[in-house]
Design goal:
The protein has a single domain, classed as TIM Barrel, CATH 3.20.20. The longest helix has 18 residues, at about 115-130. It is about 40% helix and about 15% strand. An eight-stranded parallel beta barrel has the order 1-2-3-4-5-6-7-8, surrounded by seven helices. By secondary structure, the chain is an alpha/beta fold. β7 (about 200-205), α9 (about 210-220) and β8 (about 225-230) form a beta-alpha-beta unit. GO terms for molecular function: hydroxymethylglutaryl-CoA lyase activity; metal ion binding. It holds the Pfam family HMGL-like. This is Hydroxymethylglutaryl-CoA lyase.
Length: about 300
């Protein structure tokens, strides 16, 4: 039996592209529910331009209201120096900087090219280190780009080598549009293990094309430290067409628990919270387990 950490991303990646607008109080309750189920890493907010991502406009208010302590680490997504300043002022425990692998999506997602994004990441890493804040860098569109198509493993791993120069505490691979397959997971995680032995890895999968859970299981075989998931399976990137559906926290947890993988998270509270979230957003969430229930009952 082995263990893996779960990062709950519904408060950020889940809600950022959701048509329904949740109140700050509901966002905090979503976080509280995840913590009550045993989650200890939460991507709570993003510090981005509120005109471009209106659902994240209350990032500071959310961070001011979340419960502190109990070993919970709150992550804020940042893209540039201004976002980094906001994140430090809001007292996040971790910053997650995004570097998109392709030029086209990088321009659309954060208004700069890949080289500038790498420079932004280097500055973010230095500032976070000085402030004693943990850093993670995420390579987005690592499994395929909605505009440029296939992305080679060499492209991803070369960019990984550049970002590793700034000494992240963790490096993550994100399948932003849910295009990846298990063989890609094995190739990329195997390449990272060779280039950065000892650096913890995290994977962020979408289930857009029904490969997300298979990819998560493949990542386990290559020693991934943390898997991202979103309560109810909601989420998507506002700047990547058809980037729908993170893997659902409750569906992933069911798979892991049946495999004997420890997470420290309880399933039943997640099921209840997925139903609660569906009520809040006004539709049934994409995750399957709340409909069928766990087995055995």
């Amino acid at each position: 039996m082995r263990s893996v950490s779960l990062m709950e991303v519904a408060p950020r990646d889940g809600l950022q592209n959701e048509p329904a607008e949740l109140s700050t109080r509901d966002k905090v309750e979503l976080i509280e529910r995840s913590i009550a189920a045993g989650v200890r890493r939460v991507e709570a907010v993003s510090f981005v331009n509120p005109k471009r991502v209106p659902r994240m406009a209350d990032a500071e208010d959310v961070m001011a209201a979340v419960p502190r302590g109990a070993g919970v680490s709150y992550t804020g997504l940042v893209l540039n120096p201004r976002g980094m300043r906001r994140a430090l002022e809001a007292a996040v425990d971790e910053v997650n900087a995004v570097v998109v692998v392709t030029e086209t999506l990088s321009q659309r997602n954060q208004g700069c090219g890949v080289d500038e994004a790498v420079r932004n990441w280097a500055g973010i890493a230095a500032e976070a280190r000085a402030a004693g804040v943990r850093t993670t860098v995420t390579l987005a569109a690592a499994f395929g780009c909605p505009f440029e198509g296939e992305v080679s493993a060499a492209t991803v791993l070369d960019l990984a080598a550049r970002t590793l120069e700034s000494g992240p505490d963790e490096i993550a691979l994100a399948d932003t549009i849910g295009a990846g397959t298990p063989d890609q997971v094995e190739t990329l995680l195997g390449g990272l293990a060779e280039r950065a032995p000892g650096v913890p890895t995290r994977c962020h999968f979408h289930n857009t094309r029904n490969t997300g859970y298979a990819n998560a299981v493949a990542a386990l075989r290559y020693g991934v430290s943390t898997l991202d998931a979103s309560l109810g399976g909601i989420g998507g990137c506002p700047f990547a067409p058809n980037a729908t559906g993170n893997i659902a926290s409750e569906d992933l947890l069911y798979t892991l628990s049946r495999m004997g993988v420890r997470t420290g998270v309880e399933l039943e509270p997640l099921l209840e919270s997925a139903r609660w979230l569906g009520d809040r957003i006004g539709r049934e969430t994409p995750g399957l387990l709340p409909r069928a229930g766990a087995f055995p009952n």
